[in-house]
Amino acid sequence: MTDDFTHLPYRPNVGAVLFNRDGLVLVARRANLPNAEGSPGVWQLPQGGIDADENPAVAVMRELKEEVGTDNAEILGFHPDWLSYDLPPALMGKALRGLFRGQRQRWFALRFKGDDREIRLDLDPHPEFDAWKWVSLDTLPTLEVGFKKAIYGILATSFAQYAAR
Question: What is the pTM for the complete model shown?
Fold first, then answer.
C-alpha cells in the first residue's frame, strides 16, 4: 500500500538566483549528498524556508547569509508566480521532517555586490553546501537537481535579462 501525502501542505520557501557582476549564477554542491563515484554531486541554487510571518524578501537575504555566508546583495526582481514541487515518493514522509509534501517557492534574482572571498560555506557548524561555483544561467536546467529541474528551467527563462550576454 502506498501512503497518500496529498493532504500535506507545501512548505513556504524562498530561492535565490544570485548573479555576479559578469551575469553568472552561484550554484552550490549539497554537502549531505556525497559524490558517488563518477558523479559530480548535486548542485543547486540557495533556498530555504520562510519563518512564520516573515516577508519573503527578508527571508531570501537571511537564507543567503545562512547558506553562503554573505547577504551582500541587492534584489533585482522576483518571479511573478509562486512555484511548487512535490518531493519524490522515496522522500515523502521523510524529508522536510515529514510535515510537507514539497515546497512552494518565491524565487528572487539578486546581484552580488561583494568579492568572492565573502562567500563562506564554512561559517555554519553543519553547512548545507561543501563547494560553490559561478555558472551561466542557461546551464541551470542541466544541473542534477532531479525534481527541481522544471523550476530551474522556468528561472532560466524568467531571469534571462540579468544573465551574462
Answer: 0.90
Each residue of 91-111: pLDDT tens digit? Answer: 777 778 778 888 999 999 999
> Facing residues of 158 across strands?
none
pLDDT (average), residues 140-155: 88
CB contact at 8 A, 162 and 156? no
**CA-closest candidate to residue 111, choices 8, 23, 4:** 23
Q: What is the mean pLDDT of the chain?
A: 89
pLDDT at 21 over 80: yes
Single-letter residue type at 153: G
Domain ranges of the chain: 10-162
The architecture that CATH gives domain 10-162 is Alpha-Beta Complex (3.90)
Higher pLDDT, 9 or 112: 112
Which one-letter amino acid corresponds to residue 131? A
